[in-house]
Design brief:
- This protein has about 180 residues and is an alpha/beta fold.
- The protein has a single domain, classed as P-loop containing nucleotide triphosphate hydrolases (Rossmann fold, 3-Layer(aba) Sandwich).
- Helix content is about 20%, strand content about 30%.
- The protein contains 3 helices and 9 strands.
- Strands 3-2-4-5-1-6-7-8-9 form a 9-stranded mixed beta sheet, with helices on both faces.
- Helix 2 runs parallel beside helix 3.
- The termini are close together.
């Protein structure tokens, strides 16, 4: 484990990134809090679970979070592209349920660059796009002393090495900490 996480996180601005795994929503919530501005979170209306802004308050100010419910993935991608291109948000998060094609992924990258906005796609394992700047695999780590311990692994990186870290979220300080090295 290396401790250079903060060279990679917060996420590189003006690019679209991906996150997968059981800890993907925690990663997205922390990224939203780190973004320091307004965040749009796009999700499909058919999903049974509800995103509760107050439940995300340990990570970010709920008044900075806008939630859009869309009919399907195509409508969500169109909304994300427009929001990225507009440039008035600091982060746009989308929950994807299908593979993101190369053309759609590239359109998002161009929109993020044009609007100087960061994008994050929450994907299922194996649904990544070649257009993503980075892809993170996030999973909880069993630790009897810390329920927030996670393993964040950079599994795709267009501009650097692949690495992994154990991290802990500190609710009191709203800060991400790299945990001491753990034997792999």
């Amino acid at each position: 484990m290396t401790s250079d996480l903060f060279s990679y996180f917060p996420l590189q601005p003006t690019r679209v990134h991906e996150v997968c795994g059981a800890g993907a929503f925690s990663f997205a919530a922390i990224a939203a809090g780190e973004s320091k501005g307004d965040v749009l979170w796009i999700r499909q209306a058919w999903r049974a679970e509800v995103l509760n802004p107050v439940g995300l308050s340990p990570y970010l100010d709920p008044s900075k979070l806008l939630i859009a419910q869309v009919k399907d993935q195509a409508e969500g991608l169109a909304a994300m592209e427009e929001a990225l291109r507009d440039g008035s948000l600091s982060l746009v998060v989308i929950e994807l349920s299908e593979v993101l094609g190369l053309t759609a992924g590239r359109r998002l990258q161009l929109a993020a660059k044009a609007g100087k906005t960061t994008g994050l796609c929450c994907i299922a394992d194996g649904l990544g796009s070649n257009a993503a700047e980075t892809r993170w695999q996030c999973s909880p780590v069993l630790d009897v002393d810390c329920s927030s311990l996670q393993r964040w692994e950079l599994v795709k990186n267009k501009s650097g090495a692949l690495k992994a870290w154990h991290v802990r979220w500190c609710t009191a300080s709203r800060r991400l900490n790299v945990a001491p090295s753990v034997t792999e």
